[in-house]
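Human: I hope this is not a bother. Would you mind checking the protein record under this note? Thank you for your patience.
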Amino acid sequence: MTQTQLKPEQLARKFIDEHLQNTWWKPHRPDFNVETANKLLKSCNVHTILRLPLGTFTYVPGVKANVIFSDKGVKTKNVWVYGLRTNMDNINKGNSLKDEHFKEFISLCEKQKETDRFKKYSYETIEKDRDYNLDIKWIKDDLLHTEYEDPYVILENIKESEEKILEQIDKITSVL
């Protein structure tokens, strides 16, 4: 169902591929995202955005998706954003989305209380500070900050492995 088919005050749940929210996806139309978000925010009350974990759609791995909750016919005043993606393991066949993943989200939507994962942004903030960019993220992703071994230790390990491989190659060559 498209936005124009919705009756006023009808709740619309939309899965929006984040690529639609990034200008690099539509390089031939850099104004695409500004126009789309502007129309959506002015013609609907986009009251909540749920940032889904990576892998939610298994047929397209790595795609970032959001669920946008809106009521048609009323201009957006505030947008509540829930970051379910950040610091969350990727979703896959062995780790699928379950009802328990949404319990906090549902509870916070009812209370409309800000937390580390649930933040409110005014229309003015999205318009002026964010230039209508609805790809809103604020949580530091601890999963992205991996501690690596010292590069010199890694190189030394590679050298040792290479020496062992060369020894094995010499043994095989001598047998041939």
Summary: Confidence is low (pLDDT under 50) at residues 8-30.
